[in-house]
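Subject: Protein record for review, amino acid sequence with backbone structure tokens
Why sent: The fold of this protein is of interest and is recorded here as tokens.
Notation: Tokens come from a learned vocabulary of local backbone shapes, not from coordinates.
Attached in line: The record itself begins immediately under this heading.
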Amino acid sequence: MVSPFETDLKWETLLEYGTRQFVKGKTAIYKQGMMGEGFYYLHKGLVKIVTSTFKGKDRLVNIVVPGQIMGLQAMDQQPHFTTAIAVKNAVVYHFSCLPFLEMLKARPELLSLFTQTINQKMRILLTAINMKALTSEEQIARLLLNICEDFKNHEVPLTQQELAECAGLTRITVYKILKVWKEHGIIEIKNRSFVVKRPDMLKPPQLTAHTARTV
């Protein structure tokens, strides 16, 4: 979900304080357990945030879209407790602690907004913890709705494979669910994207009432 810090702030005017990095798809931007020193701003691309369970499996925490920030938990130079992976080729800006302090001196109003963003990230984490209590169908619906809200657009720029990777599900599971939704006129499947035509049908109780259980 987008926070006030990410929507009200004109990041283009602050990129000079960061270091630009080009990241290939399926490459980690930072890894769980790695010592952090700053945070990242996503300029282009799409990034999934995952955390590893004690069984070694990745659990999806959040999807980051352009204009959002990530890695805030490492601002105090502590280890990252999540991993950020580029779903597709991405451009990010890394803001280390010292330049960030300089940025705060120039824009002191950022401090309160930064605090709001940290609180928002914690709410996202709590939501992600509850995701595993949902069915595969409900997980994909929640994921698509969140991306639509963040992009302010009902077209989701993901392939079926990328959606499966984001959700931590198999491609065949995602294919079966999307096939049913397409038959119900809920989504339209394009070459490398989906169009959510009936977002209301992806919310309970409509999701349960009008779509078949496929997994």
